[in-house]
Specification:
The chain is α+β, with helices and mostly antiparallel strands and about 325 residues long. The chain has a single domain, classed as HIT-like (HIT family, subunit A, 2-Layer Sandwich), CATH 3.30.428. The chain is built from 6 helices and 14 strands. Strands 4-3-5-7-9-8-13-14-12-11-10 form an 11-stranded antiparallel sheet. Strands 2-1-6 form a 3-stranded antiparallel sheet, with no helix packed on it. The longest helix has 22 residues. The radius of gyration is 20 Å and the shape is globular. The model has no long low-confidence stretch (mean pLDDT about 95). The protein binds zinc ion (3 copies). One zinc ion binds next to loops.
């Protein structure tokens, strides 16, 4: 079992977990291993707790029984090599702050197609993935001791992906992660009339950093992007968590994800990237967040300045990044 250690002075957290080192990797030896996320290899993962199967005119929601569900379109199961675990065995007493790395970790396989890159995943399939993510998040927030559900995608080796089959990861925490806490403090997102992201969106929707706009969702390059070509996707109406999004709104989010990742792949030739979801924590005593997605293309490496001082150099002005991404959408 792993543990979460807190830094001597700051709120920085570190999960110390030896189990993670055992996880398989195909990122550096493509195709050498049999992919455990591919159809036909379902028995190599823990039983799926949420499986979407395409029926004639609807999507059926199923779970793996003794036999795994075949013919799935999206499949979610517990991570076989989690950094956190549902066990809460007390840790031996030490001189410094630590607690058991308690939590749940899931994988959502986005498509049965191994070789589909994220920018090629169709809107319909993103919509199903976000629906599965929404449902799983709802269930996890009902579990005892879960304060936060964090979801992310690692695409490519530079972004830390160990398996290349397109998948989304979910991990829960018993406290709100530090970066989310910082955003909560800065955003004051209790209501739309006080929410700073609402105010930011009003300006960005008509400004030089707007990339793309769909029904109630927009993508823009943030004013102080820490990564070249970074962009954020947010609902243009005040919404504090993806759980509030209707199916139609999830479809609109999917259109924006598909369109912007397509543009990113065209402008930078399918770069590695991380895509993360920032939603409100379960308990609202720390405030609420206007939920959004952040995409960090990995085109330049963080170095001493970024790692040691949290000061970032971005060689592509966000206005220029937005212009290039927007024109890749138009053409
Ligand atoms: Zn695969
Ligand atoms: Zn807002
Ligand atoms: Zn954020």
């Amino acid at each position: 079992m792993g543990e979460i250690r807190k830094d001597y002075f700051s709120d920085r957290l570190v999960i110390v977990s030896e189990a993670r080192a055992k996880r398989p990797s195909d990122a550096s030896a493509k195709g050498r291993r049999k992919c455990v996320f591919c159809p036909g290899n379902e028995l190599q993962t823990p039983p799926a707790e949420l499986v979407l199967v395409e029926r004639k005119d609807a999507i059926a929601v199923m779970v793996d029984q003794i036999e795994p569900v075949k013919g799935w379109t999206v499949r979610a199961f517990p991570n076989k090599f989690p950094a956190v675990s549902p066990s809460r065995m007390p840790l031996p007493k030490t001189d410094f702050e630590a607690e058991p790395a308690y939590g749940f970790q899931y994988v959502i396989v986005v498509t049965p197609k191994h070789n589909l890159s994220f920018h090629q995943v169709p809107v319909k399939q993103w919509h199903r993935t976000l629906t599965a993510f929404q449902e799983l998040t709802k269930r996890l927030l009902h579990k005892e001791g879960v304060q936060y559900v964090y979801a992310f995608i690692n695409h490519g080796e530079q972004a830390g992906a160990s398996l290349s089959h397109p998948h989304l990861q979910l991990i829960t925490f018993s406290a709100t992660p530090p970066l989310i806490q910082e955003e909560l403090k800065g955003m004051d997102g209790l209501a739309s009339n006080t929410c700073k992201l609402c105010t930011v969106l009003e300006k960005e929707l008509n400004g030089p950093r707007l990339i793309f706009k769909a029904e109630q969702f927009a993508a823009f390059a943030p004013w102080a992007s820490t990564h070249a070509y970074e962009f954020w996707i947010a609902p243009t109406i005040h919404q504090t968590t993806i759980l509030e999004a209707t199916s139609k709104q999830l479809e609109s989010t999917s259109v924006v994800i598909r369109t912007t990742l397509g543009a990113l792949a065209r402008v930078l030739h399918n770069p590695d990237f991380n895509l993360v979801f920032h939603i409100s924590p379960r308990n609202h005593t720390e405030g609420k967040l206007h939920w959004h997605i952040e995409v960090y293309p990995q085109v330049t490496k963080w170095a001493g300045l970024e790692r040691g001082a949290r000061v970032y150099i971005n060689q592509v002005p966000p206005e220029e990044a937005a212009k290039r991404l927007a024109s890749a959408i138009r053409h």
